[in-house]
Design a protein that fits this description.
It is elongated, with a radius of gyration of 21 Å. The protein has a two-stranded antiparallel sheet with strand order 1-2. The protein has helices spanning 2-17, 30-41, 46-71, 84-114, 118-122, 129-155, 169-188, 194-210, 222-229, 232-244, 251-278; strands spanning 73-74, 82-83. It is mainly alpha-helical. The chain has eleven helices and two strands, in the order αααββαααααααα. The longest helix has 31 residues, at 84-114. The chain has one domain (52-278). A hairpin with a 7-residue loop joins strand 1 (73-74) and strand 2. 72% of the residues lie in helices and 1% in strands.
């Protein structure tokens, strides 16, 4: 009875997908991947998940309130000066969203792809490559969202969000997580060894240190400023900093567009790569 019901359901799904645009890669069942990840979370290492939340809090305490006592107020680009803790809080929020998304969309995906062989089984069902990509990316951005909400619950009572509009930094963090997750999964689909995966940390660490996280961009020479401004984390930090400090202008639209392009390109590359790998 159960097997017959499952077969009937698969046939029904296949019938609904027939002749639909994109039916070869998308069945409209990406939330099944999110459900699977939620069930797997119950038996996962909670310490690894929790560490992604406490890390920016430690940075805020040590740099914002420790080093901040020596630095004093900071300003960037002619804007009003703020306390050092207020200056780095948006950067740490953006970094927290990035870390939550990137680790789920890289190492988590790598193990499922090469060791658990999860995608082999999933793509043998009615689900398509875009279902898998969207499901994994949505789960990664949910982790980034959780980190962002937790961090905001700490910085807001401390008075590090001068503008009430700063609460919009949470949906902005979701956009940031979505961009990094989609791009991270696209890159991971090309990784074949642990040595190659080490490049993720090799790239993320300097990007974290040199994207305007702890000091204004104008401390660098002009040629290096141009390079840094092209980095996704710099775009994320600039967007979060403008929102949390209430500095709304046209540049926010550029930051949003940057991540929309990042999301779209990541989804396209991931879908094509998964299709090439598992649906030959």
């Amino acid at each position: 009875m159960i097997l017959a019901a499952a077969l009937d359901s698969a046939v029904a799904i296949a019938s609904r997908r027939a002749n639909r645009l994109g039916s070869s890669v998308y069945a409209g069942r990406s939330l099944v991947m999110v459900e699977r990840s939620l069930m797997a979370l119950k038996t996962s290492n909670w310490f690894a998940v929790l560490s992604g939340f406490v890390e920016p809090v430690f940075y805020l305490a040590s740099f914002g309130f420790g080093l901040g006592g020596l630095v004093g107020n900071v300003s960037e680009g002619g804007s009003a000066s703020v306390s050092y803790a207020t200056f780095i809080a948006p950067a740490l929020l953006a970094t927290s969203a990035m870390n939550g998304a990137i680790y789920d969309s890289t190492w988590n995906v790598y193990f499922k792809m090469h060791f658990g062989k999860i995608y082999h089984g999933i793509l043998a069902t009615s689900m398509g490559a875009l279902d898998v990509a969207l499901g994994e990316i949505v789960w990664a951005l949910l982790r980034g969202l959780a980190y962002a909400i937790g961090f905001m619950c700490i910085v807001y009572p401390l008075g590090l969000v001068p503008s009430t509009w700063g609460l919009l930094a949470i949906p902005a963090a979701v956009l940031i997580a979505f961009g990094f997750a989609s791009f991270g999964m696209a890159i991971t689909s090309y990784m074949k060894s642990f040595q190659q995966m080490d490049w993720v940390n090799f790239i993320m660490l300097p990007m974290f240190l040199f994207s305007g996280t702890f000091y204004p961009l104008d401390v660098y020479p002009s040629w290096l400023q141009t390079v840094i401004q092209a980095l996704p984390l710099y775009q994320a930090i600039s967007m979060e900093r403008a929102i949390m400090l209430g500095q709304f202008d046209a540049s926010l639209l550029w930051h949003v567009l940057y991540f929309v392009v990042m999301i779209a390109s990541g989804l396209v590359f991931t879908t094509r790569r998964l299709t090439a790998l598992f649906m030959r």
